[in-house]
Every structure is written in C-alpha cells, then in structure tokens.
Amino acid sequence: MSQRKATSDAGRATIRDVAERAGVSVASVSRVLSGNYPVSEELRRRVMKVVRDLDYVTNAHARSLAGGGTPTVAILINNITGAAFAHVAKGVEGAATLRGWLSLVGTTGDDPERELALVNLMRQQGVAAVILLGGAYDYDEYQLRMARFARSLDAAGSHLVLVGRPPLEGDVPATTVDYDNEGGAYAMASHLLSAGHRRVLVLPGHAELTTAQGRLRGAQRAFEAYGVPFDPGMVRHGPYDYEHGYEAVEAALHDTPDFTAVLAGTDVVAAGAMQALRAAGLRVPEDVSIVGYDDIPLASQLTPQLTTVHVPYEEMGRVALRAVADRREGGAGRRKSADGDHLVLGTHVVVRNSVRPPGRHG
Amino acid sequence: MSQRKATSDAGRATIRDVAERAGVSVASVSRVLSGNYPVSEELRRRVMKVVRDLDYVTNAHARSLAGGGTPTVAILINNITGAAFAHVAKGVEGAATLRGWLSLVGTTGDDPERELALVNLMRQQGVAAVILLGGAYDYDEYQLRMARFARSLDAAGSHLVLVGRPPLEGDVPATTVDYDNEGGAYAMASHLLSAGHRRVLVLPGHAELTTAQGRLRGAQRAFEAYGVPFDPGMVRHGPYDYEHGYEAVEAALHDTPDFTAVLAGTDVVAAGAMQALRAAGLRVPEDVSIVGYDDIPLASQLTPQLTTVHVPYEEMGRVALRAVADRREGGAGRRKSADGDHLVLGTHVVVRNSVRPPGRHG
DNA sequence: ACCCGTGCGGAAACCGTATCCCATGGTTAC
DNA sequence: GTAACCATGGGATACGGTTTCCGCACGGGT
C-alpha cells in the first residue's frame, strides 16, 4: 500500500512501479532502459525482469518533456487518397523509421483554416519538422501565410519543409524539396510535338495551382521552341481528377474538335480524358494521342499504357526527411545556409503506348 | 533577467514567459487558455495579447502529462499506397478531426516485427486506440500475437481495433469493425452465375490472407447454391496487385483456357487481368467478363467500367473511431459489452459494364 | 457597522522521466 | 597504510503544464 498508488491500479505502470517492485531507485531503472550509463549485470537483470512482467513501456510524453524523446515529423497532406501524395508520405515514413523517428500524418482537405489548426497542433507536439505536401494555391495571402508558418515553427525549434511546390520568396526559414516540374512538361510537350502533333488540348489543372502553372509554362516553352503557335483556346483548367479530364475532353470535342493529342496535367486526368474519347468513338492512340504526368501506378495500368512524366515522389519524401535530419544534426552550425534550402529533383518522360503520330486530322 | 531563463531564449515560449510578461500568475494563464474557470475580461485581454505577441502554443507533452491533452488514435497500415486503406484512414481521420482528436499513421510493410515495434511505440504515446487496418495473415501465431496486443493496450488504458479482418477468438479486449466480405463475394459470384457463366477463373488473393479466404468461401457457396461444380483448378492465389492479375490470367489462358469470366479478389487484380486478356486478343466483356472487389475509384475508371463489390471503407473508418469514442465516454460503465465489440457493415454489388453472358465458349 | 458569500488570483503539488550531484565501497597507487 | 580513484547506485531537481487549495477583497444583507 504505497502512499501514491498501488501498482495494480488501472492505467499504465510507471517507472516508479518498476523501481519499487525491483527494489531499486527510479534513476536506476531509467539508466537500465536508456542504457547510457554503466549498470551492473545484476541490476539490469532484476529490472528487465520486472519490466517484462509489468509489460512496461516508457511514457513518451514524460520522456520528451524531460528532454529525451523520439524526434517526430508531421506530414500535412491535402487528401490522403491522392496516389502521388501517398508515395511521398511513404518515402518520408520509410526514411523516418530508418532513423527511429516517428511520423504523423494530417489531412487538410484543401482548407486553409484546417491547415493553420494543424500546423499549430504540430507545433504543440513539438515536432522536428512540418512537411507540407503538394502544389499550393498561389493566392495573394499565400506567401505571407507560409512565411508566418515558417517563422513560427523556426522560433519553436521546428522547421517547415515544402515538398512539390516552389520555394518561398524572401528570407524565410524553410526548406523546399521540388522537382523539375516545368522541365518535365517541356519534355512531355516536346515529345508530342516531335511526333508531329500541332493541335494539342492542354489540361494543366487549376489555374491558381503552382503545379499547374509550371506545367503550362513548360508546355508553352516547348511550343515556342518548336515554332508552333500556342493557342490559348486549347487550354482548359480544372481540378486534378478523373471527372475533369472527362468533361474537358467532352467540351473540347464540341468546341475545338481538331486536336490530335491531349496533354493532361495528371495521369488521373488523362484517364478521364481517355474515357471521354472512347465514349465519343475515338481510338487512343490511333485517333488521338494522350500523355499524362506523375507516373503513378495507374499510368501503366491503363489501356493503352500511358506515356507520362515520371516524378520521383518517394525519393522526394526521403530527401525531405534527410534534409530535416541533416539540419538537426548540423545544429546551429550554419545558420542561413542560403543554398541547400532548395533541392530540385529531376523528372523524365516515360514512353509507353499512348502516343502516335497524328492520323485523324493531320 | 529571470533566474530561470530569458523570454527571448531559443526554443518555444513557456506558460511562465506569458505569465511573467502579462504580470499575472501561471495559473491565470492556464485558466484563460483552457477556459474552464471564471476569469475577468481584463485578465483575458491582457493574457491573450501576450499569447499572440509571443505566438505561444501549449506544450502537448506537458499537457498530456498533467492529465489533459488531446486524445490520439493510431492507424497502422500495411502499405499507405493501397487505395482501400487510404479510404479507411480518411474516414478515421475525418471523424477524429471532427472531435478534435489527433491521428497518427504508421506503416508496417507487412513486417510483424515492425508491427510489434509500432504497437509499442503507440503505447508509449499513450494513444486512445490502435487501429489495425486490412486483412490479416492467419498464421498460427497470429491469434496469440493479437491477443497479447489487445491485453497490453487494454492494460495501458488504450484499446485495439481491428478493421477489415475477422474478430479475435476467445475473450479478448478488442473491437472489430468488419464488412460482409463473404456475402459480397457470394453476391458477386451469383451475379456471374446468373449471367450464365459456368467456367470462372477465381483470383481470391493470398491463401493465408483472411480477406482472400472469405472471398473464396463466398464464391464457393454461390456455386453450390447454383448447383454448379466448383473446380479448384480454376483458383489461383497470389498477392493483391496488378502483376498478379496479369500473370494469373496469362497462365490460366495456357492451362485452362475455357473460362468465360474472371472473379478477381480486388479491383487492381481485375485491372491486371483485363490487361492480360487484351494482350491475348480477347475482348472484355464480349469474350470474357470480369468482376472485381472493393470498388475503389479505379473500378469506374477502367474501360469497360468494372462491375465490382462496394465496400464502405470510409464509413468503416468512421465507425471504428466512433466505437473508440463511445467506449471512452462510456468509461467503465459497461465492462465486457460482449456485443458491440463486433460491428459488421454491409456490402453490395455495383453493376457496371464488365459483365456479359458468356459468348466465347458457351 | 458587522458578517458572510462570492469571485478571482496566487502558491504549491503533481504528472512520469532523465540527469546532475553526491555517497559508498572496493581498487589501485604511492 | 592511507589517499586518490573508479564504478555504481540513490536522492533531488527540472521539464511545462493543470489543478487543488487558500486567501484576499469586495459587496450586499441585516
């Protein structure tokens, strides 16, 4: 009958319970468990036996309060259902686990309010870093908002990492892991152009989404490079989903039916586009060629298999985590490493079976 | 120059910093923030101003140590990339957020070792519940392992929830959220049989996976009900992925080419099967019908759109979280609610365009 | 004018662990 | 033989909050 509470209480066993039952001090138990202090074999055996008997695990909250604790990174994602994001998350998770780090995943559902709430929540958790995934909507407020996040986190000893979107402007304490979005689009469009296509339906995504903007720019640059006039009327914006792909093609077949290829902003959009073409009695790629972007598994599972741009999502996740880990070890060694704050990974075209030289009109 | 440390130190601001700067006591700040104690308007204003100035957030670890804290649930998943799991996770996350709860996601990669490590990790975190997602490999050791998990978590005031797999045997403190797996397979197979198919290639999944076992049983029962002999030679086991679907059909076309339909254990497997049939010059559904299982978005994006079994994954996630929340509020009210520990959700066939009466052979 | 209830602020205990500092006993060195 | 030392173990304290217990001031009722 201890004064505090009985060992057999409801709730988990504490280190005190273990100490008491093993007849040693609390400090000794802590030492045996963390193993960073010399301890006699006898003591170790006694303590470990009780630990097993009680099925004791240390309280992570208490441990991290006391200074120890496992580093944790938070992954903030718009929609856990998106295949591309899932791969980044997988990369982060894998790299984190490798170092014994923990990772949280939160979803924002494209809601800035919720994003703010989550960032604060993560700040409360004392995470080593907050990793924001996916393209951003470049509203006016966006830069300010992110800068505020970055400074808040930085002040709390944490760090903001942006994955898959352009770096922030100005002197903001954040790391960006990016891929050559525009270059990929340039290469993809070039592929179509060199196959002979001239009238191309472009479905870059939402006009405000940074990802879409980059993909559109890349395509335009390719047209310029080939000396082919770029018709803004052939561009249709919309969300990155199957329905948009379907409807955009449907509409285009009505308005500007002379296109011979579709440059989709995403593999999923390409899938929708493909379906719409089929519904209209057109064959892919005999009548119309299609290309996507992202190279998610779906791309190789479509019929015909989709030519697309490979983006190293999983590696981006790994790189993001490594950046955080490095910075944490480097400590205050180099403040403001003006470079190394922006990592860019390469993309490349994966040629499959969804492109042929134009045949329908051309 | 406080004795402890200056407010402008590196690291986050503490509640003491806020109190000091606002010229009030620590207790008052805590009261203002938690709002469960009467506080004068003047005090509230003073404190809130400082909170904003310092961008203060409470330390979640300290808070949860002191008894308060946000309830947290952990989702353990084999592969974050799987579409079905992602939807369950979404359901859990959504329901958790609705209550202001937090959710963690960890991936096991099908590794029992890692699963153990994660469960312990979550126990350390003091999570309200650990939610295990997806079918289980029913090895001998499995039941013991899970029972141990359940008891460990239970003893620590946490709880084990199994989603998408059969309930544990015996008197184990765990909740199961399940769907009518066998019934769905029964209905799906019946659909095929009533369309006239007799020779059906069955790709249930891994033989040891509970999900696969249930789906196979359902199919067999349907054959019995229709008085059609079930040929074990038409069953091919394998992983739930695209490649398996492809290869299984390829092999079957060589060994037993007289099938007129494919009953795939998963939509993704169905996609692979479809591709293999096409590669062999067969049309879907004119020559061979195909059905899937899960009703992930992919199913409606294939050509032809896939007839499949709808599983309410997202709802399962919501239900799982609700079960945890209810139990937590119910408190010790009803120990051992022998029922209510096993919730079963319904499934139903979604008819699309991948099934026709047999034409090739029949 | 006195008493008591009410409303609100402060001091201190406690949550579970890690770590610093010190005590002890046995060794080694002089 | 004694002093200095190493290897261990214990006690106390800090980490950052929440909460209970107290006390003070103020106001109204009699």
UniProtKB/TrEMBL annotation, chains A, B:
<dbReference type="Pfam" id="PF00356">
    <property type="entry name" value="LacI"/>
</dbReference>
<dbReference type="InterPro" id="IPR010982">
    <property type="entry name" value="Lambda_DNA-bd_dom_sf"/>
</dbReference>
<dbReference type="GO" id="GO:0003700">
    <property type="term" value="F:DNA-binding transcription factor activity"/>
</dbReference>
<keyword id="KW-0805">Transcription regulation</keyword>
<keyword id="KW-0804">Transcription</keyword>
<dbReference type="InterPro" id="IPR000843">
    <property type="entry name" value="HTH_LacI"/>
</dbReference>
<dbReference type="Pfam" id="PF13377">
    <property type="entry name" value="Peripla_BP_3"/>
</dbReference>
<dbReference type="GO" id="GO:0000976">
    <property type="term" value="F:transcription cis-regulatory region binding"/>
</dbReference>
<dbReference type="InterPro" id="IPR046335">
    <property type="entry name" value="LacI/GalR-like_sensor"/>
</dbReference>
<dbReference type="InterPro" id="IPR028082">
    <property type="entry name" value="Peripla_BP_I"/>
</dbReference>
<protein>
    <submittedName>
        <fullName>LacI family transcriptional regulator</fullName>
    </submittedName>
</protein>
<feature type="domain" description="HTH lacI-type">
    <location>
        <begin position="13"/>
        <end position="67"/>
    </location>
</feature>
<keyword id="KW-0238">DNA-binding</keyword>
